[in-house]
Design a protein that fits this description.
Blueprint lengths: L3 H31 L5 H5 L8 H23 L8 H4 L7 H22 L9 H30 L2 H14 L3 H10 L4 H25 L3 H17 L1
Helix pairs in contact: 1-6, 1-7, 3-6, 5-10, 6-7, 6-9, 6-10, 7-9, 9-10
């Protein structure tokens, strides 16, 4: 017969796994509610009165959405693989992280050359867009790597934690497609498929960066840099 300690550990692992998965699903549902795919910014900040209303709502919604992740990380610090002190330590010059930055740079510049044939940058306000993309990186990495993967890896194998957190990270990108279907009767099958594959792949990579560095700042900066380079140059 198994000892009471082993049974207790197994039960604890099941509860922690369920908590991690349900909390990440909860973040997906919350994002489905607050996302600007519903055109909240147009209602709250009319274009004739607020020139940058879309950015204002983007900042507000991202901060509102990510806040619970920081509270959970603080509250359940001892249940995590990397406690908050290590989790938010300085970024590290780790090989996977550096290689990702180099490949992202090469890809973005190559795409710019193919698409435009010369130097090109977006005409969108770079400062406002930079703040928005930084909040995207901080929020999504805090939720799915700093909290979800971090908690799962404490009680499950690294492979299980990687796959499940990456799958739910991909699912985060689904609500916008279904909202568009609901509002406009259009569904982009190819778009949701390609973005799901991309998000799942990057979810794995960002988790590996956290595992190798021990700090969530590595995936945050990698995520931000990828989004910024693609939006700025492609």
């Amino acid at each position: 017969m198994e000892s009471k300690e082993i049974l207790h550990q197994r039960e604890y692992g099941k509860k922690q796994t369920l908590s991690a998965l349900l909390s990440m699903v909860g973040f997906i549902v919350l994002w489905a509610i607050v996302t600007d795919a519903w055109n909240y910014s147009a209602c709250l900040f009319p274009a004739d009165r607020y020139r940058f209303g879309k950015y204002l709502y983007a900042y507000f919604s991202r901060i509102l959405w990510m806040l619970p992740a920081f509270l959970l990380t603080y509250r359940f610090d001892r249940s995590l693989t990397w406690g908050r002190k290590q989790l938010f330590s300085m970024p590290k010059a780790e090989p996977v992280f550096l290689a990702f930055l180099a490949l992202t740079t090469a890809y973005a510049l190559a795409a710019m050359a193919v698409n435009y044939g010369s130097w090109h940058m977006t005409r969108e306000p770079l400062l406002l867009r930079t703040i928005k993309l930084l909040l995207v990186g901080i929020g999504e990495e805090a939720v799915f790597r700093g909290w979800g993967y971090n908690l799962l890896r404490k009680v499950r194998s690294d492979k299980a934690a990687l796959i499940s957190s990456a799958f739910l990270f991909a699912a985060l990108h689904w609500p916008a497609y279904f909202i568009k279907l609901l509002l406009y009767g259009q569904f982009d099958w190819m778009g949701i498929l390609t973005q799901s594959i991309s998000a799942f792949t990057y979810g794995i990579l960002f988790s590996v960066m956290l595992r190798r560095s021990g700090t969530v700042w590595n995936p945050i900066l990698a995520h931000f840099y990828y989004d910024w380079m693609l939006e700025a140059f492609t």
